[in-house]
């Protein structure tokens, strides 16, 4: 899941009522990574989100979980190279390195590498993830960093990213300013299961937003 957001953030540890909609707040679906992975599919996904950001913005940042975090990071790279939204920050949960958007336009799907590419995201980012394998992965659900193959698993293997720790840490190294929080809750967004993990995630998000506002 990837969400483009305006800054209206309130930190709370109290219970709140949330929508059960699987399609997100606006019911919009722009696409997803298909298998086998295809440059045209990935490019269309990114271009659709760019169009949405430009037509519905301005937005302050982008939030992504799992493969949505990869999409969010790819948008941040694109915005740094070819500004289209002026994003000020990114919040990335259980995410992996972005795809190179310039390569996608050339028909190449490549996972970005901090050794080769250096820092390519220029705004503050929060990286919230776990080194633990999620129980969901053992039940056959595909996830980033788990022990089940994502459509992007071959790209990670080519880059030598073979564990959740390597995958998530490589993304943080691709960013100029990374605020990292590592929890023990597996492949999920910290919530009511662990107040300690939730507090840690909120601290990383707070620091990221404060830095973006500086």
TrEMBL record:
Keywords: Hydrolase
Gene Ontology CC terms: cytoplasm; nucleus
Residues in Serine hydrolase domain copies: 20-129
InterPro entries registered for this protein in UniProt: AB_hydrolase_fold, FSH-like_dom, LovG
GO MF annotations in UniProt: hydrolase activity
Keyword Nucleus: no
GO biological-process terms attached to the record: secondary metabolic process
UniProt-listed PANTHER family: ESTERASE ALNB, ESTERASE OVCA2
Name the record gives this protein: Serine hydrolase domain-containing protein
Native organism: Colletotrichum sojae
Native organism taxonomy: Eukaryota, Fungi, Dikarya, Ascomycota, Pezizomycotina
